[in-house]
Amino acid sequence: MSEDVQALAKESTSASGLVSSQGALLFGAFAIAQGLSFGRNAILGHWLAKGDFGIAATLTLILQLVETLSDLGADRLIIQARDGDAPRFVATQHLALIFRGVVTALVIFILAEPAAHFFGVPEASTAFTAVALVPLIKGFQHLDLRRAQRRFDNRPFAATEVAPQALALAVTVPALYVFGDYRAVIWISFAQAGAFLAVSHIVAERPYRLACDRDALVRLINFGWPIWLSAFPLVAVYQGDRIVVGHLIGMEALAAYTAAFMMAMVPGVIAAKVGHALMLPVFSRARDDRESFAAHFNSACEATVFAASVFLAGFIILGGPVLGLAFGPNYAGYGNLAAWLALMWGIRMIQAVPGMALMAEGETRPFLVAGFVRAAALIPAFVAALNGFGLEVIAACGVLGELASLIYVTFRVDRLRAGLGVELAQRALLLAPVAGLALVFAALSVAPGPIAQVLATILAVALIAGLFIVRLPANDRRAVLRIVGHSFTAPFGARR
Predict the structure, then answer these.
(1) Exposure winner among 252, 345, 367, 431, fewest CB in 10 A?
(2) How far apart are CA 20 and CA 16, in angstroms?
(3) Is the pLDDT at 491 greater than 50, yes or no?
């Protein structure tokens, strides 16, 4: 009996170490990728006139728009499905991605000129047409990296995140030097899409194959239709506020809103992507073991709320100065906007945990309802913009939408597994005192200057970390220390 207990303990320690090392790998890769992306956008912000930066942001907005509206979740199905490793199953998902790329490219091509007129920049219609090639290129990506994620090997996935961003940053200055305006973004997008395609094939273990398996396509449709339908209200969530700003207020206001949005989304995207890549395979493996599933869920909640708290405190105190420093003096004075957007992204980060828990169970319909709940916030945002309210009010409307969505998904995950929603809600409520603490430090550090603001941020983060560590049980505390150790010693040396 003692030998069995020792074996189980050893297996548990090994699994915990694997998750820790892969979490550190993903965090390091996403941090580098988002840092490169932020650096590229900062260069664009400094180089381009505010109006041109607004057009460049609109081009990126269109690409994000069609990508969201054409997503059936083929990549996530490979991770979630019990037979997701089967060659014919993966080859069928390749065919589905090509079809998606062709359709989205045609949609952009057809709607390019009307979109340019909608945003009041008809002179940019050629640029809007040209970016149709981007989703077509990405449609031929290799999905073998998702197979690797099934066995907790995220190195191929990390490569496809970092390499395209590195190449995009490398070509930014040459493209700006040649074109000098928003057209540079077109060539940067081509370079990024081409690098993504190439790296996905380079890191693949299997040859690229296409197949048309009827059963696999039916399963993709059953799995993906709620994700696809939920994309329409999600457009209102992720792009709707910027569409409203660009159409009703103008390109310069869109440039300012986009700069603050880009800065706020960097840490938010890092945390969300790490969570998605790590939590879905972990939850999928543990779905048949109720206690193990609950333990993984609670640990993920604790880590995500902690990350969201640190992120929010940092932006409340330092958001304004960093925005002006990163994008130039034209973007100074938007600290309140950055804080509201950080709160929106912080709440969105927390929703990744119940979202992946639901997806691991094959429950994708709640994403559709959550999307409509979030999208409802676009109505007050539209009214605010129409009546001349500031950008901060529009961002605050987004916060209300995210909060309502969090309440809904918390309720759904609690119905699926009783007690988990209550655990999530208790942890999420910690954002309130964290925001209050950060506001106090921000008020005290404004007058003394930038050094005082940096010191206030460090002190606030230390207090938040202490609060979370004190709340953790001993086993979870050791897990946190293990993850931190991996993050500093071997973020790119993770092994399967």
Answers:
(1) 252
(2) 6
(3) no
Distance CA(184)–CA(46), nearest Å, equals 14
Whether the CB-CB separation of 149 and 79 falls below 8 Å is answered with yes
How many C-beta atoms surround the C-beta of residue 177 within 10 A?
10
Taking the C-alpha atoms of residue 338 and residue 396, their distance in angstroms, rounded to an integer, is: 11
Residue 209: CB atoms within 10 A of its CB come to: 13
DSSP assignment letter at 116: H
User: What is 79-124 written as a DSSP string?
Assistant: HHSTTTT-HHHHHHHHHHHHHHHHHHHHHHHHHHHHHHHHTT-GGG
DSSP 418: T
Contacts by 48-53 with C-beta closer than 8 Å and gap 24+?
Answer: 48/176, 48/181, 48/182, 49/181, 50/251, 50/252, 50/255, 50/256, 50/330, 51/251, 51/252, 51/255, 52/181, 52/182, 53/182, 53/255, 53/258, 53/259
Task: Write the CB contacts of 49 (distance below 8 Å, at least 6 apart in sequence).
Answer: 181
Question: Which of these, 96, 79, 83, 82, lies nearest to 210 by C-alpha position?
Answer: 96
CA–CA distance, 39 with 45 (Å, rounded to integer) = 10
3-state helix, strand and coil shares in percent for the chain, rounded to the nearest 5? 85, 0, 15
Kind and range of the H or E run holding 273: helix 251-286
What is the largest distance, in Å, between two alpha-carbon atoms of the chain?
76
CA distance 76 to 228: 13
For residue range 320-353, list pLDDT tens digits in order: 777 777 777 777 777 788 888 888 888 888 888 8
Contact 150, 79 (CB under 8 A): yes
pLDDT in tens, 222-267: 776 776 676 666 666 666 666 677 666 766 777 777 778 877 777 6
CB distance 89 to 83 below 8 Å: yes
Q: Answer yes or no: are the C-beta atoms of 489 and 470 closer than 8 Å.
A: no
Tell me the C-alpha to C-alpha distance, in Å, between residue 364 and each of 113, 231, 305, 413, 422.
35, 12, 23, 12, 21
DSSP state of 28: H
- Structural tokens at position 128: 């809007």
Q: What is the Cα 48 distance to its own chain's centre?
A: 26
DSSP symbol at 85: T
Q: Is the dihedral of CA 34, 40, 45, 46 positive or negative?
A: positive
Task: Report the alpha-carbon distance of residue 439 to residue 446 in Å, rounded.
Answer: 11
To the nearest 10°, the Cα dihedral for 97, 99, 102, 103? -110
Taking residues 202-215, report their average pLDDT.
87
| pLDDT > 70: percent of the chain | 81
Q: Is the pLDDT of residue 468 over 60?
A: yes
Q: For the purposes of burial, counting CB atoms within 10 Å of the CB of 377, is it exposed (0-12), middle (13-18) or buried (19 or more)?
A: buried
CB 8 within 8 A of CB 17: no
